[in-house]
UniProtKB/TrEMBL annotation:
Family according to the record: Belongs to the short-chain dehydrogenases/reductases (SDR) family.
Protein origin, superkingdom: Bacteria
Protein name in the entry: Short-chain dehydrogenase/reductase SDR
Keywords carried by this UniProt record: NADP, Oxidoreductase
UniProt-listed PANTHER family: (+)-NEOMENTHOL DEHYDROGENASE, SHORT-CHAIN DEHYDROGENASE_REDUCTASE
Entry's Gene Ontology molecular function annotations: oxidoreductase activity
Xref: InterPro entries: NAD(P)-bd_dom_sf, Sc_DH/Rdtase_CS, SDR_fam
Organism from which the protein derives: Pseudofrankia inefficax (strain DSM 45817 / CECT 9037 / DDB 130130 / EuI1c) (Frankia inefficax)
Length: 236
């Protein structure tokens, strides 16, 4: 039995990834900052998939005590963790670069960058107990220097300091984990422009399409490129 822990899994890409992995017979720890919303999301999955092993995990990735408590809950359950998906993220301000101030970065970096670092650091000992551990970082094409400078890509037309830089920083953190943790397969994914509340449901992809790269990073039987979208490898 394979076990996955997904942060920010009570809605959007996290919920769809949880649904799809549960359908494969995996044990899914559904991380949610608000336990009631997590329970509602888990009930949605189990209503569609009777017998699915979906477990709600109260989890605020910005708090050391919450992440430590989550670790103890998972450890006590005996399921272990084979795959950690750092999915929780927020968009933050949409101010123009010239109007952005330092305070605008704090909350977004707290979730998008420090959240994955906190989760990875805390769960690494448990992850290493797996026979085939994987670490999946949910990033964005907005964090890619190659994509945001490609005039043929939508991302090159969008201007902003906070969200793109948080994802670019996450990409660098992931590459450093990959180099220093050769026993763990580390994959960074760009879901693509997906209709979720992160962007006011303006994306042109469905959540199923958006979760394709996440699910592939979790399940691929061959070694993947370090940064992928649903269409294949993409540039840093």
């Amino acid at each position: 039995m394979t076990t996955v822990l997904i942060t920010g899994a009570n809605k959007g890409l996290g919920l769809e990834s949880a649904r799809r992995l549960a359908a494969l017979g995996w044990t899914v720890w559904l991380g949610a900052r608000e336990a009631d919303r997590g329970k509602t999301a888990a009930a949605e999955i189990t209503a569609e998939q009777p017998g699915a092993d979906v477990r709600v995990l109260a989890l605020d990735v910005t708090r050391d005590d919450s992440v430590a408590s989550a670790l103890e809950t998972v450890r006590a359950s005996g399921t272990g963790v084979d795959v950690l998906v750092n999915n929780a993220g927020i968009a933050g301000t949409r101010k123009a670069p010239a109007e952005t101030v330092p305070a605008d970065f704090l909350g977004v970096f707290g979730v998008n960058l420090l959240g994955p670092v906190r989760m990875t650091h805390t769960f690494l000992p448990l992850l290493r107990e797996s026979a085939a551990p994987r670490l999946v970082m949910v990033s964005s094409g907005m964090g890619s220097f190659g994509i945001t400078n490609d005039p043929d890509r939508l991302e090159s037309t969008l201007h902003g300091l906070v969200y793109p830089s948080s994802k670019a920083a996450l990409n660098m953190v992931a590459t450093m984990y990959a180099k220093s943790l050769p026993d763990i397969q580390v994959t960074v994914v760009d879901p693509g422009y997906t209709a979720t509340d992160l962007n006011g449901f303006s994306g042109f992809q469905t959540v199923t399409e958006g979760s394709d790269a996440i699910v592939e990073a979790c399940t691929a039987t061959t070694r993947l490129a370090p940064f992928i979208s649903r269409s294949g490898p993409i540039p840093w």
